[in-house]
Amino acid sequence: MQRPEIHQHIITSASNLFYTNGYNSTGINEIISKSGIAKATLYSHFKSKEDICIAYLKQRHDSFLESLKSYVSKRKKGKNQLLAIFDLLRDMYRDEDFHGCWGLKTLGELSPKQKKVLGVIQKQKKELLLYLGEVVGDNISNISKAETEKISGGIYLLYDSAITESHLFKNDWPIYMSRSIAPLLFANSEVVQ
């Protein structure tokens, strides 16, 4: 394997371990074993487990955002695009490898000293919130910035609750409940047809 391939292979191997077992429960030796590489090779790509975690969070977030944008773009304008995040989450839940939100799972394991990882998770959540604001702006006519933030913030909170609770209860009812509540956020708005 070439250097970029090895780098990606380490991230993918660690990603599977972090997402399934948790950040704190996954050791460097386990990542090395799963990757099938030498310790020196791992450390030539990443200085620390924290750096691997940041690469993992970035890979998961970028992949999710790309999937969400594609999912939204394939939906008919209006209510269908506004609710697309819940439909994508339902599909993600049906995947046998669903373990909830990678960012929130990692956040729950952080110590107060791990500000770098916390900053990455916060940045990613803000990116999602901003994207949801774009979706709201594209699908609701004559909407103020304050109303856009209120609706996109509500969708964001319903989504985060749904992903966490569906993992907690090992059931998809939180996704359906959040999806059914979300239209109340824009019930009095002029939704594009």
TrEMBL record:
The keyword Kinase does not apply. Pfam families: TetR_N. Residues 27-46 bind DNA. It comes from Flagellimonas aquimarina. It comes from the Bacteria. Keywords: DNA-binding, Transcription, Transcription regulation. This is TetR/AcrR family transcriptional regulator. The keyword Amino-acid biosynthesis does not apply. PROSITE patterns: HTH_TETR_2. Residues 4-64 form the HTH tetR-type domain. The lineage of its organism: Bacteria, Pseudomonadati, Bacteroidota, Flavobacteriia, Flavobacteriales. GO terms for molecular function: DNA binding.
